[in-house]
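User: Second chain of the day. Same drill as before.
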Amino acid sequence: MNEVELIGWASSIVLLLTIGRQVYSQWRTRATAGVSKWLFVGQLTASTGFTIYSVLLHNWVFTASNVMLLVTAVIGEAVYVHNRRRNRAHSSA
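Assistant: Same format as last time:
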């Protein structure tokens, strides 16, 4: 692995840990306040496009990173929807 790839992998890890921590915090607290569903919809759309783009360029650092970001977006959206339904059910009860 060369220095350029190392920078790419390190940056991808930092980004994945940051976004992953946000999704984990939402799951743990069951909160939806301050979180827009459009955040995950936008992330899902962008990650899909960037994954396709990275594959076409044969850039495996960004292909792997964007696949993981895509997975994180799907999990984040699922957590958001689950928490929102749960919070609505509790507030109407």
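Residues 60-92 form the longest helix (33 residues).

User: Great, on to the next one.
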